[in-house]
Amino acid sequence: MLTAPEPRTYVTTSPDETREFGKRIAPRLGPGNVVFLYGDLGSGKTTLVQGICAGLQVGVWPNSPTFTLINQYEGRVPVFHCDFYRLGDPGELATLGLEEVFFGNGIALVEWPELAEEWAPLDTIRVKITRRSAKKREIVLHGLNL
Ligand SMILES: Nc1ncnc2c1ncn2[C@@H]1O[C@H](COP(=O)(O)OP(=O)(O)O)[C@@H](O)[C@H]1O
Ligand SMILES: [Mg+2]
Fold first, then answer.
1. Residue 36 belongs to some domain of the structure
2. Count of domains forming the chain
3. Cα(127) to centroid(ligand 2), Å
4. What is the SS3 assignment for 84?
5. 3 Cα–ligand 2 center, Å
6. Which of 21, 24, 87, 143 has its CA 20 to 30 A from that of 7?
7. Residue 4 forms part of a structural domain
8. CB-ligand 1 contact for 63 (6 Å cutoff)
9. What is the pLDDT of residues 46-84, one digit of tens each?
């Protein structure tokens, strides 16, 4: 029987180190993978997404999609960067075409995923980021062995 790997904890001490950490995650991702990124505002979710996207050969630098809930990029596979911070209510999710995002041929990277829990595929990778000091972040990775 397959068992999920134990959560692992990592520490970074600069934004670039967090991006490098994202680049290490990228090769482990393929079509259909979903990554939920938890953490307070300013914890480093988007910074980590930038590193993952660089590792996926996305040619642009994703930033926080303030007014759009989902941005799509072309990397070595399609990449959907979701940020549900401004989601009004979970019912709105039904209007966003999430079947393609979560169960299609791309990779979904989701900030503020709390309201989308019921959409999470069984093998969703979860990343929890905590700000420990101005430049130090603790990153706990669930569901993926690096
Ligand atoms: N180790 C670190 N990892 C990630 N971001 C860091 C780190 N140290 C400082 N920062 C800063 O914290 C902020 C993180 O912002 P961002 O990635 O947009 O967070 P979020 O998307 O979680 O709101 C940035 O200003 C970044 O420069
Ligand atoms: Mg963000």
1. yes
2. 1
3. 13
4. helix
5. 31
6. 87
7. no
8. no
9. 999 999 999 999 999 998 766 789 999 999 999 999 999
CA 122 to ligand 2 centroid distance, Å: 24
**Residue 39, ligand 1, Cβ within 6 A:** yes
Other C-beta atoms within 10 Å of 83: how many? Answer: 25
- The set of long-range contacts for 72-78, using a CB threshold of 8 Å and a minimum separation of 24, is 72/106, 75/107, 77/30, 77/31, 77/105, 77/106, 77/107, 78/104, 78/105, 78/106, 78/107
- Calculate mean pLDDT across residues 79-91: 92
- Note whether residue 115 is domain-resident: yes
- Measuring CA to CA, which residue among 65, 63, 66 is closest to residue 53? 63
Other Cβ atoms within 10 Å of 49 Cβ, number: 28
* CATH code for position 112: 3.40.50.300
Structural domain including 74 reads: 22-88+95-121
Is the CB of 126 within 6 Å of ligand 1?
Answer: no
How does the average pLDDT of the chain come out, rounded? Answer: 94
Nearest ligand to residue 64 Cα: 2
Relative to beta strand 78-83, strand 107-111 is: parallel
Share of the chain above pLDDT 90, in %: 87
